[in-house]
Design brief:
mainly alpha; globular
Length: 303
């Protein structure tokens, strides 16, 4: 079975066979922070998505760098930056995560937060499919049923809207392939994250200089909000990295639904996004698919 997409995305192998209270606290904290992230991003709805992503990259560097200095793990970064194969893989994962961030910010701030929730709900099912398509892994009947339900839900939404839910599909595909390629990056999660933002710093700083030069930068009037992008980006990732090492895969598989569920609730009850008949049909289909997927994963662990 494919490693849970969030586990794979951070290249983490659990160190314990059971769950620890500390691991649970770290992981739940991370998922709740991700769940509340749309509220922060909505404060930046007047800022172009590309500029928000640039600041997420730039201000994550000092935080991630400080963590590695305190942990004494900076040697891994030096090795990654001087190893062509590792650097190339870092460029691939950095490109995928930057596109994912851009789609996410656009979705939240353009009134499509429900599509963001849908995309992250589908993620684990897409990762299972990638395992079948690219790694030739065998899927159970329950897993095929889950994938079929998710596909049918996308068809329902497409027919209703007359177009594909591109934001949801974009988030699913970019994160799924990010998770897939991240497995080939042989460094720890904190080191991998710093490597990616260091790679992205070049275009991010270039873009910041460009908009600063033509007078369209929002940084002078939104300094603290844009500085905070580094905190809301890096802190949940590092909390999750520490939590996942102390939890079982099945526990993570269940906990990962916290964030998209919170995004869903924020979209409907805070942002007031319409939840019409099509979504009323499609989302329960997705939830049923996730129940099948989780049950299949739990059963496989028991055997």
């Amino acid at each position: 079975m494919v490693v849970n997409e969030t586990m794979a995305s951070l290249n983490i192998i659990p160190e314990r066979s059971g769950d620890s209270p500390a691991g649970l606290a770290f992981a739940v904290s991370a998922y709740f922070l991700w769940g509340f992230l749309p509220l922060y991003m909505r404060l930046l709805e007047h800022v172009p998505a590309a500029e928000v992503v640039a600041h997420r990259v730039i201000w994550s560097i000092p935080i991630a760098g400080l963590v590695l200095i305190l942990l004494g793990r900076t040697r891994d970064i030096k090795e990654a930056l001087t190893t062509p194969k590792m650097l190339a893989m870092g460029c691939v994962t950095a490109a995928l995560i930057s596109v994912n961030w851009g789609i996410y910010v656009w979705a939240i701030n353009s009134g499509n937060a429900l599509d963001a929730a849908l995309g992250y709900y589908i993620n684990p099912l897409f990762s299972v499919f990638l395992g079948f398509a690219l790694l030739k892994e065998q899927l159970t009947r329950l897993q095929w049923a889950a994938i079929a339900l998710a596909f049918a839900a996308v068809v329902v939404l497409t027919v209703d809207a007359g177009r594909l839910p591109l934001a949801a599909i974009g988030l699913t595909v970019t994160w799924g392939f990010y998770a897939f390629f991240k497995k080939s990056l042989p460094i720890g999660p904190n080191q991998g994250f710093l490597l990616e933002v260091l790679i992205l710093a070049i275009p991010a700083l270039g873009y910041w200089a460009y908009i600063g030069g033509n007078g369209t930068s929002n940084f002078p009037t939104n300094t603290w909000l844009l500085l905070g992008c580094g905190v809301v980006t890096s802190v949940p990732l590092m909390l999750y990295a520490n939590g996942a090492k102390r939890l079982r895969l099945t526990t993570i598989a269940i906990l990962q639904y916290i964030a998209p569920t919170m995004i869903f609730l924020v979209a409907v009850f805070v942002f007031g996004e319409p939840f019409g008949t099509a979504r009323g049909i499609a989302f329960p289909m997705i939830w049923a698919a996730l129940v099948l997927y989780t049950f299949s994963m739990v059963r496989s662990r028991e055997h």
